[in-house]
Amino acid sequence: MPGNFIDTNVLIYLVSGDAVKADAAERAVGAGGMISVQVLNEFAHVARRKLRFSWDEVHSFLTMIRALLDVVPLTATIHDRGLQLAERYQLSIYDAMIAAAALASECDILFSEDLQEGMSIEGLTVINPFRHPG
After folding, report:
1. Is 0.70 topped by the overall pTM?
2. Quick check: 47 and 58 in contact, CB under 8 A?
3. Which one of 9, 56, 76, 114 has the largest count of C-beta atoms within 10 Å of its C-beta?
4. How would you label 67-90 residue by residue, b for 16+ Cβ within 10 Å and e otherwise?
5. Contact in structure between 107 and 4 (CB atoms under 8 Å)
6. Domain boundaries in the chain?
């Protein structure tokens, strides 16, 4: 079943001071879809380290996101597929793990600004939601 997968950068822009990107991120998340535990972890890291969120703010935001999007667990199978994708497509390990989780969830769209717009990874198409502001 086709679906959307949301990368960490989309969540970060939801809380950014950039109104245009925040609106685009809100549209992407509002369309529904999935994220992985990795995305939750990456967001928590950036929120604490760069955005200076309190722990309460981190928990509150992630609780909201988990209510809006389905969360895909990380598994050894996803890890193995991620390694294969990293090697085949010359992706960073982190981007490959996100692509692997999206593929395991049978998603056909990956909303991300980190990968090349229009890139196809085994039927998963990368769309940069910030290049299509609405």
Report:
1. yes
2. yes
3. 9
4. eebeebebeeebeebbeebbeebe
5. yes
6. 4-127
Q: Which CATH class is domain 4-127?
A: alpha beta
Burial of 6 (0-12, 13-18, 19+ CB in 10 A): buried
**Residue 9, CA atoms < 13 Å, CB-side half-sphere:** 15
DSSP string, 4-71: EEE-HHHHHHHTSS-HHHHHHHHHHHHT--EEEHHHHHHHHHHHHHTS---HHHHHHHHHHHHHHSEE
* The token pair that represents 119 in the structure block: 């890139």
Map residue 111 onto helix, strand or coil: strand
